[in-house]
Amino acid sequence: MIAVKNVNKTFGTNQVLTDVSLEVPKSHVVAIIGPSGAGKSTLIRTINALEPIDNGEIIVDGISIHDKKVDINKARSEIGFVFQSFNLYPFLTALQNVTLAPINVKGLSKGEAEKRGKELLTSLGLGDKFDAYPNRLSGGQQQRVAIARALAMEPRVMLFDEPTSALDPEMVTEVLDAIRKLAEDGMTMVVVTHEMGFAKEICDEIIFMAEGKVVEQASPDKFFSNPNTERARNFLSKVLNH
């Protein structure tokens, strides 16, 4: 479903990604973890071409995303992206945020889009928030609206960039529960996260990055119980003991 092949990315003289390769099969959930500055967010942003790459190739559902001949807007409509900072339109209600793209990009009628939007918001525990503006919602509620907005486009793949990092601790669980439900429904997902318990419980594979490279790739059981590399062991000793 997703194949990243020998991808390199620089910002000026800073090499952010170095020869990164990975695969995500259909209906699998992959967590990308690692220290700050490892290149995790840059990598996930290259998967739907929010960031260009210097060389290499990224294929999503058979489409080479960075090929200049590709209609990137059409390709992106199949790839849901949830940012860490919500990025909701403050002047639109929750329902309007969810229906905007299906109406303007996919050409759904307002009635069709609103029916689907209400179903999604209700399924995420926001059935009473259709008419609420973002500033009247908690951080966890805003992030769930953002998830509903991405799902409204009926994507084949969902990408999450630290979806809980901007949340107060008590709001984290409701967002992770929403992602957990998507995993149970068979959605193909890549999640950049610092929530180690979530990664261990939900994900099919862990990708550990450091200094712009994939250092280790393993099942959660193997990675958390017996990582292969000293770099991963050092990382886990810090994040699991604090």
TrEMBL record:
Superkingdom is Bacteria
Question: What molecular function terms (GO) are annotated for this protein?
Answer: ABC-type amino acid transporter activity; ATP binding; ATP hydrolysis activity
Q: Where is the ABC transporter domain?
A: 2-236
The UniProt entry, under Gene3D superfamilies, shows: P-loop containing nucleotide triphosphate hydrolases
Membrane-topology annotation of the record: Peripheral membrane protein
* Localization in the cell: Cell membrane
- List, alphabetically, the GO terms of the cellular component aspect: plasma membrane
Query: Which UniProt key words apply to this protein?
Result: Amino-acid transport, ATP-binding, Cell membrane, Membrane, Nucleotide-binding, Transport
Where does the record place a coiled coil? none
Q: Which family, according to UniProt?
A: Belongs to the ABC transporter superfamily.
What is the name of this protein? Polar amino acid transport system ATP-binding protein
Q: What organism does the UniProt record list as the source?
A: Sporosarcina newyorkensis
Q: What is the lineage of its organism?
A: Bacteria, Bacillati, Bacillota, Bacilli, Bacillales
